[in-house]
TrEMBL record:
Record's protein name: DUF7344 domain-containing protein
Lineage top rank: taxon: Archaea
Keywords: Membrane, Transmembrane, Transmembrane helix
Domain DUF7344: 18-93
Residue intervals passing through the bilayer: 117-137, 149-167
Keyword Transmembrane helix: yes
Length: 175
């Protein structure tokens, strides 16, 4: 049950998005809701965040209560008001709304030992530039294959990578 109506049906502006994402608990709430299939209870979310913050499972009761109170009084109402999460304060249920996509664009989540897509594409572009320059100026053993081969090779590699990137993003989408 919303206490107020969402601020607007227009897209969120950058300042609203940055305001949401500058808080660790709000970011983790969105991330964990997505990971949990798009809905869960405030108790489950508070337990999860408290465990992350203390590195103890289960987290101490006092910490869980503190996290619960801050989620209930501050973070979840803000996400609800912006239409990112539907927060039913009676049943304590949370559900991701379609508008979460506007925020997730800024939240590329990369596991600790992984590489972000932006870094991957940058690396691919730099490798391509080095190989094409070497082929153009006939440096090293790259001269065995001509410039056009390398250009087509990297173009194909880029298209396959982008296709996989789009496909993997579709798998994660709930909507």
């Amino acid at each position: 049950m919303k206490l107020t109506e969402p601020e607007t049906e227009q897209e969120l502006d950058e300042s609203q998005i940055h305001n949401v994402l500058r808080n660790d608990r709000r970011r983790e709430a969105i991330r964990y809701l997505r990971e949990s299939g798009g809905s869960l209870t405030v108790d489950d979310l508070a337990e999860h965040i408290a465990t992350l913050e203390t590195d103890e499972a289960p987290a101490p009761r006092k910490v869980r209560k503190s996290v619960y109170v801050s989620l209930h009084q501050t973070h979840l109402p803000k996400l609800d008001d912006l239409g990112i999460v539907e927060y039913d304060q009676r049943s304590k249920e949370l559900t991701l709304e379609d508008r979460v996509r506007e925020v997730e664009v800024y939240m590329e989540v990369v596991p600790q030992h992984d590489v972000s897509w932006a870094t991957y594409y940058l690396g691919l572009g730099l490798l391509e530039a080095v190989v094409l320059l070497a082929a153009q100026f006939q440096l090293f053993s790259i001269q065995m294959l001509d410039f056009q081969f390398w250009a087509w090779f990297f173009l194909t590699f880029l298209v396959v990578s982008a296709g996989y990137h789009v496909y993997s993003g579709l798998e994660k989408s709930l909507f």
